[in-house]
Amino acid sequence: MAAMGLTEWAYSLSESLLSDPLPRRWAHSLGVAKRARSLGPIMGDDAELLEAAAVLHDIGYSPTIATTGFHPLDGARFLRDQEKADERVVRLVAHHSCALLEAEERGLRQELEGEFELERPDLVDALLYCDMTTTPDGTQTTPAERLDEIVQRYGPDTIVGRFIQRAAPEIHAASERVEGRLAQVSADGQPM
C-alpha cells in the first residue's frame, strides 16, 4: 500500500473483489465513491479517507472474503487482518450505514462493537449519506427512495428489511446533517 496512494489502493482492491463476481455491487461502490468525492468541500483533510472507505464499504459481500454473511464485519476484518489497512478506513467500513443496528438483528452487535471502534460522527454521517444517496446501479438518489428500494428488494420482514426500517430515522437525520454542512459551505461562498 505504501507505493500507491490510499484511494488508488482502495479502488484497485475493491475492483479485484467485486467487479467480476458482483458487477452491480461494484457499480454501486463506484457511485458511492463518486458521492464521497462530491463532499470534498466539507471533508477537508479527510476527503481521501472518505473516498477510500466509500469504494471499499461493500467488499464484505465478495464471495472470496464473506464468512459471517454480515458484510460490514467481513469487510472490516479482511481489511484489518489481510490488508493491514488504515485503521480509520477499517472503522468506517465496519460501521457504515448504521451497521450496529443490523449487527443487532443478526446477533453480532457485541462482536462488531468489541472489535471496531466508531469513527468520528461527521465521517460516519458522510459515508452513510454517500451510501444512502446512491442506487444499487451507482446513480444518485434520495435517502427516501433508497430506503424504499432496500425494503422492496429484501422484503419488510427480512433481517435487512427490519434493520433498514429501524435505521430510517438515523439515515434521514445523518443526511440532513451532511446536507446542512454542504449548504453552509455553499452559503459561505466557497466553491462546491
From TrEMBL:
Residues 25-133 form the HD domain. Pfam families: HD (PF01966). InterPro entries: HD/PDEase_dom, HD_domain, HDIG_dom. Signal peptide: none annotated. The lineage of its organism: Bacteria, Bacillati, Actinomycetota, Actinomycetes, Kitasatosporales. This is Phosphohydrolase. It comes from Streptomyces cyaneogriseus subsp. noncyanogenus. GO terms for molecular function: hydrolase activity. Keywords: Hydrolase.
